[in-house]
Amino acid sequence: MLLFSFLLVGMVIASASMGYVDIGPSDLASLIKTEIFNDPGPVDATVKTIVMDVRLPRILVCAAVGGALALSGVLFQGILLNPLADPYTLGVSAGAAFGACVAILLSLGATLVSVPLSAFTGACLTLFAVMFLSFSGSNKGGGFSSNSLILSGIIVAAILSAGISFMKYLADDQVSAIIFWLMGSFASKTWGEVALTWTVLGAGLCISLFFARDLNLVCLGDRSATSLGVDTQRVTLILLVTGSLLAAVSVSVSGIIGFVGLLVPHMVRIITGPDHGRLIPVSILTGSLLLLGADTITRAVLPHEIPIGVLTALIGGPVFCWIFKKSQEI
């Protein structure tokens, strides 16, 4: 885990120095010294504006969203006992997209928080709808079953996707704004969004680590977990809400970014094994590294910036097909 932490710090520094305006290591070191020790060193005002007001908020939000999506994927795959589960399985992304489209269609985008707040509201309402549809008092596993949750998520997501298509039809001049938001981007992030995403990620990490042992036992099956003293209904509900809120906040600030929550847990299990006490923190660091690396490529390496959701879908889609095919052969 220490190695991944050092790699993430190195990635943050490298990403902050790359872009349309290259910033040398000496300028970056002087800026860091000035900001940390309040030392009025020889820092160019333009460099300070680029790093502190443009690049660093984007980098930190990107790292937090990558970690939150990865953690959400770990929780969903553990709770649902399904290797294909991720934050989008329950329709949370479709709910957030629907909320954002409503805000854009009603021209609420002029205010700073209207689109993210509307997306977050849509994601939470979708989660409650999915949980209401899937809840069954006759289920001995605690009211929620893996199959009913996934089927409910697919049904609600299909309805919301039809609603999004209808709003695109009505949007006229605003349809380009809707499409751009749906493709995902970290452009124009603020320090307020940095505080929001890292606060939610920190809370999600604490809750997940607290229930890591219980989650290990839940992965053995409801009967085994119950016989070992785990309240499966309580653990499932808490971790389900935690994972969904992590995904909802991530989608509300960055748009639709798929496959991070699906792929990262599978990659990290090869290194750490199935123990969630090690899987959770390493998955967060790996998710941050991967998404920050992809965002740096789209922002600073490619000749024209492309939405990061497109890049993650192009890479993650084939891997998703491989995991699906492999799961059928087991």
Automatic annotation (TrEMBL):
InterPro entries: ABC_BtuC-like, ABC_transptr_permease_BtuC
Cellular component, GO annotation: plasma membrane
Transmembrane spans: 6-23, 59-81, 87-108, 115-137, 149-170, 191-212, 237-264, 306-324
Main location: membrane
Subcellular location(s) of the protein: Cell membrane
One BP annotation, GO: siderophore-iron import into cell
Alphabetical UniProt keywords: Cell membrane, Membrane, Transmembrane, Transmembrane helix, Transport
Any one GO molecular-function label of the UniProt entry: transmembrane transporter activity
Topology relative to the membrane: Multi-pass membrane protein
Classification via Pfam families: FecCD
PANTHER family: ABC TRANSPORTER PERMEASE PROTEIN MJ0876-RELATED, FERRIC ENTEROBACTIN TRANSPORT SYSTEM PERMEASE PROTEIN
Family named by the database record: Belongs to the binding-protein-dependent transport system permease family. FecCD subfamily.
Descriptive protein name: Fe(III) ABC-type transporter, putative permease protein
Organism from which the protein derives: Desulforapulum autotrophicum (strain ATCC 43914 / DSM 3382 / VKM B-1955 / HRM2) (Desulfobacterium autotrophicum)
Organism ancestry: Bacteria, Pseudomonadati, Thermodesulfobacteriota, Desulfobacteria, Desulfobacterales
